[in-house]
Every structure is written in structure tokens, then in C-alpha cells.
Amino acid sequence: MEPIYPWGDCSRQVTRRRRGEQMEKLACRYLCQAGLRWISSNVLYRQGELDLIMLDEQTYVFVEVRYRKNDLYGDAAASITWRKQQNIKAAAAYWLANHNKCLSTANCRFDVVAVTGSRVNWIKNAFY
User: Fold this and answer.
1) Under DSSP, is residue 101 helix (H, G, I), strand (E, B) or coil?
2) Domain containing 64 — which CATH number?
3) What are the pLDDT digits (tens) for 11-50?
4) For the chain, what is the domain count?
């Protein structure tokens, strides 16, 4: 008999988390093959989470990774709301401050790697 969780289907949460980890690894490999260098993954602050932090020559790249099984409800990139962008920027500012840099003066950008089905779409400078 399956356990009953009052907060929902726990096995589905684990599966979603595992899928997210797989997509972040795929995105990291994709970007590394494109010449970026990995700095960190899954950096979590109260302000928000940074999926990947990469370096493109002298530019810090904060990458949001999104996955959708198909584009029935829009592609993966379309799911990044204005609020999510603000949270990513706040987390990036905090990360930069911890590394003696400032968001307004540091050479950085915000990219999105959107995986829809088996299609990978890297959007440079996805938002500011």
C-alpha cells in the first residue's frame, strides 16, 4: 500500500527535483562545450536561487534553467515571470556582494537555458 502524505504526492516532488537536477547538469555541459567555465550551481539565498553561475571570458553569467516536457502550454523560457527575474537579480547582487563586486558595475549578464522536450535553447541576455 502506498503511503499517504497530507502535503501531496512526495514521489512526484522527488521526480521533479531529480528532473531539475538532470536539466541543470545538461545545461552546464552545454554551456561548457560552448566555452563557458562553471563557477557554481544551486546557490540559494533568501532573495532567490541561482541555478548556474558561469564565466564567459570576463563576464559573470547567471543562468536560469527551465524545462518543459513539451510546448503545449508555451516553451520553457515563457515560464520565467517578472517576479522570478527580480528574485534572480537580487540573488545575483547578493552573490556579487559576497565576492566584493556590485551588480551595477560588475561585468555580468542573465541567460536562460530553456529545454523543451529534447530541444535546448540558450538565450543570452534574456533579461536585465
Assistant:
1) coil
2) 3.40.1350.10
3) 556 587 888 899 999 999 999 999 999 999 999 999 899 9
4) 1
